[in-house]
Recover the amino acids of this structure.
């Protein structure tokens, strides 16, 4: 496996978004969606402290966390990354968008880029995502992206695993 940290922090891009390293100048825009270990930030100082912990996790080879940038607006609209499981050949995807940018395709584009990076660059054997059973939009998105439910985690959360359609090889 090719685990972080990398010589150059990876930037991933398609026609509408870029996944890039979060800068200190981005923190003000991310306070409302900054989380670490299930705790949300209430101000810029807390969000910055959380980002320092996220950066340390990256340097320790335990995670990779990108800002989702709208290329047209040149603005960070959310975050996406892998947060756990590398030691087992797996990556747990996590993501969040600022409310004003939900339902516009940003998350699908970000997850597609992150999944490809996890499988093709890191060498993950398994990609999972955990979300609330009540988060219907996330559940529909995961299903569209070829994730399938693999476990119920108590009464509130559900785990999904990425299972792309198998490639058929026909004899010649």
């Amino acid at each position: 496996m090719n685990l972080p940290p990398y010589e150059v922090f990876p930037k991933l891009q398609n026609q509408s978004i870029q996944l890039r390293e979060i800068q200190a100048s981005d923190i003000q825009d991310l306070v409302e969606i900054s989380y670490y270990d299930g705790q949300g930030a209430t101000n810029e100082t807390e969000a910055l402290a959380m980002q320092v912990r996220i950066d340390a996790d990256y340097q320790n080879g335990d995670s990779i966390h990108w800002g989702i940038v709208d290329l047209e607006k040149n603005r960070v609209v959310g975050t996406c990354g892998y947060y756990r499981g590398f030691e087992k050949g797996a990556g747990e995807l996590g993501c969040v968008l600022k409310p004003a940018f939900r339902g516009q395709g940003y998350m699908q584009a970000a997850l597609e880029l992150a999944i490809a990076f996890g499988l093709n660059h890191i060498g993950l054997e398994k990609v999972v995502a955990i979300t609330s059973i009540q988060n219907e939009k996330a559940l529909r998105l995961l299903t569209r992206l070829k994730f399938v439910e693999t476990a119920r985690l108590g009464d509130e959360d559900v785990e999904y695993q990425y299972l792309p359609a198998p490639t058929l090889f026909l004899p010649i």
